From TrEMBL:
UniProt entry keywords in alphabetical sequence: Cell membrane, Membrane, Transmembrane, Transmembrane helix, Transport
Claim: Transport is one of the keywords in the record: yes
Membrane topology: Multi-pass membrane protein
Native organism: Kibdelosporangium banguiense
Coiled coil: none
Protein's name according to its UniProt entry: Peptide/nickel transport system permease protein
PANTHER family noted in UniProt: GLUTATHIONE TRANSPORT SYSTEM PERMEASE PROTEIN GSID (PTHR43386:SF3), OLIGOPEPTIDE TRANSPORT SYSTEM PERMEASE PROTEIN APPC (PTHR43386)
Family stated for the protein in its record: Belongs to the binding-protein-dependent transport system permease family.
Keyword Flavoprotein tagged: no
Classification via SUPFAM superfamilies: MetI-like
Length: 290
């Protein structure tokens, strides 16, 4: 490592600290929580203290203890282990919904902005029609037609979230398309593909990130609702929505832990991602005005 690199490192650390301070304490805490949830989802199978599906008839409704930090459920399964392992599908589903819908929404937005005319009009009508269909209803119908599980609700929600993202991205892409530098690139002989990929897409990328962060929380709620209705991931597989549903009968008996802890984790994740998305929106908006 050169002397110049060594001298630059404190400055870089200071810049990172200043950016974190500008991000805001609440949003920083939310971002850290979201990052930890992602780590748990990826490496949960390494840190879970017990098998998430192992039944222990001798440990039914055990209270919190050093052996079971969050207690056990109605079949003696460790609640903490089920929360940790359940983070995988509970976060992977919304992530797939966001990725697929962001790709579809971005393609529609760029096509509408670049071609304009009847192409833009058709895409606008498609967005209006599909936007009127609630994503949760579409996911329930897909699960009823194609069977319960992970894939059908994810694909259905991905389709329903495309117009949500496309409507916002289309407006931004149309504004970007009208700027003088786009016409200058065309005069210089740049192809439409080059302009869209190297200039138009990067300039709306911050908005894509912001919308995806916000959509993640709503997708998590929708998928948790599908699992709660019994149309998503099926028991005994651990999933936060499944845990809320499975623990509901025990609430009357005075054992709300399974439903309560799973619901709290869902709320924490949704609020965290929404806060990050909101702060990113403010950040990019401030930078866009400077």
């Amino acid at each position: 490592m050169s002397i110049a690199q060594v001298m630059m490192r404190p400055g870089r650390r200071g810049a990172i600290a200043r950016r974190m301070a500008a991000f805001g304490p609440l949003a920083t805490v939310a971002a850290v929580c979201c990052f930890l949830l992602v780590l748990v989802a990826v490496f949960g199978w390494l840190i879970a203290p017990y098998d998430a599906t192992a039944i222990d008839p001798l440990a039914i409704f055990d209270p919190s203890s050093p052996a079971h930090w969050l207690g056990t459920d109605d079949t003696g399964r460790d609640i903490l282990s089920r929360l940790i392992i359940g983070a995988g599908p509970s976060l992977a589903g919304p992530a797939l919904v966001v990725v697929l819908s962001a790709i579809g929404g971005t393609l529609l937005a760029i096509l509408a902005a670049w071609h304009g005319g009847w192409v833009d009009a058709m895409i606008a009508r498609f967005i209006e029609v599909t936007f009127a269909v609630p994503g949760l209803i579409l996911a329930v119908v897909a699960a009823a037609v194609f069977g319960t599980g992970f894939l059908a609700p994810v694909i259905a929600l991905s389709i329903s979230y495309v117009p949500v993202l496309a409507r916002v991205l289309r407006a931004a892409a149309l504004k970007e398309r009208s700027l003088p530098y786009i016409e200058a690139l065309r005069v210089q002989g740049a192809s439409g593909w080059t302009i869209c990929v190297r200039h138009l897409l990067p300039n709306i990328l911050p908005l894509i990130v912001v919308q995806s962060a916000v959509a993640f929380g709503y997708a998590m709620l929708d998928l948790a609702a599908v699992s709660y209705l019994g149309l998503g991931i099926q028991p005994p597989a651990p999933d936060w929505g499944v845990m809320v549903a499975n623990g509901q009968p025990s609430i009357i008996g005075g054992y709300p832990e399974q439903s309560l802890y799973a619901a709290l984790v869902i709320v924490l994740a949704v609020v965290g991602f929404n806060l990050v998305g909101e702060r990113l929106a403010r950040h990019f908006d401030i930078e866009g005005r400077t």
